[in-house]
Every structure is written in structure tokens, then in C-alpha cells.
Amino acid sequence: MRKTATYGFLLTLLLASACKKVIDVDLKSATPQIVIEGNITDAGGPYIVKITKTVDFSAENVYPPVTNAVVTITDSTMKRTEQLQQIDSGVYVTSTIIGQTRHTYGMVVDVDGQRYTASSTMPRRVQLDSITFAENVNFNNQTEINAVVNFQDPVAIGNYYMFTEYVNSRQIPDIFVFEDRLSTGRYIEEPLFNDSSYLQKGDTLVLSMDCIDRNTYDYFFTLLNVTGNNNFQSVTPSNPVTNISNGALGYFSAHTVQRTAITVY
Length: 265
Fold this sequence. Notes:
The chain is mainly beta. It is built from one helix and 18 strands.
């Protein structure tokens, strides 16, 4: 099953033991809430946790950074913990943790007398075989070019994927999340249809394929349902499923990442 979400997030771009909950926020007037975006990948560190606060729905989309947090990440598989260092307002980075597949990572954020926790297990990498292109005529009778990702899904059910495209060094706002519930063990040829940006022959496309866990998939799947097709520039102060405890918004994700560059033809 494929879902498309429109977003611009700190993608560098979650969770075996955490509780999942739906966060309901009064968008017209709400007490500011903590927003946490954390990522661990197999591409090498440092890894980043970004912490901000929400603003009222009517306010400008400038999310105040949280600068007084104590953030720790633990590789639960290796029993190693480190405290992150703040390098910018609301931006905390690792120095020793190494992202590895099938390792479980825990995050703890202490701020303003509150503790927020999450955990994520990095799935094994599924290799992207190739990127091809398909043309189709849209409702405006215009010819569109869309990338098609081609890869072998593992036999075991429960694989989740995220795809992000960068065209001529610019990120396309549409992202795609895909689960193998209806296609487990099959060879996947999945077109990435863009609603707002179209590829042109000769463009340089960089495509990121991330293997994510179920909780990360649920977060972005429900985020799409919350935001519809509206563009947004950060985690929305709304009610997507989150793997972070104690009423925080956002996500914590341990995932594999692979990027492939190709010229559109």
C-alpha cells in the first residue's frame, strides 16, 4: 500500500517498545507543546535530535527552539549511552553512537521537569535495484514523467519504506511511504506520482530510499491524513500517531538510507 505525504522535514530521515497514541491539539489556541524530531541512520553520524515548541494555528510558522533540554540516546543492543551536545538552538547531536541495522535505540529527553521517551529498531536494508521513468497524461492533458523504484521485497512480511526525491538539488515536497502488506515477497515496481512538481528530461534526480520501522510508517501515514495535500514546513501541531511518550509531538526514527543519483530520461 502506497501513501504520499507532502512535507519538508529534517531529512537527513523509529520503534519496538514505545506506546503509540493520537495527540489532539486545539489548533485555534493551544498551550505550546514539545515537538521532537530524531533520526538515527546507517549512513554514519553525527545524528541529530531537533526540539521545538508548537505555536498557535494563527501564528507564523516559526517554531521556537528548545535550548534547555538534556538529550540522551542509548544503543540498547550494545548497552551504550551518550548525552548529546547542543550545537545550535534546539539542535542536539551525537558524537559516538553508530547506527546499525537490527539494533534498537532509545531516546530520552528531559526538559522543563518533563521526560519524553521513545525507541526505534533499525530494520535491515533492502537494496534499491534501479530507478526507471514512466510517462503518463494527467487530467490537464499534459505529459508527466514520474520516477519508478524497482526492488525485491523480502519474503518476511512487515517491511516499510519511505522515498524522497531531490530534483536539481531541490527537494520535491511530496514524499512516499509504502508497506508490503499486499505485496510481500514480490518484485516491486512502484511509480512515485508527484502532485506539485514534475520531472523534465535532463533533470538530475537524487532519490533517497529509507527502510523504516512500523511506527515511523504509522507516523507519516497518519500525518498525511491530518494534513491532506497541504504543504508544510515542519512537524504539524496536530494529531499524527507518535512513538514519543508523555504527549510530545514528532517522531524518533532509526532507519537505513541509500541515495541514488540519475539523469531523467
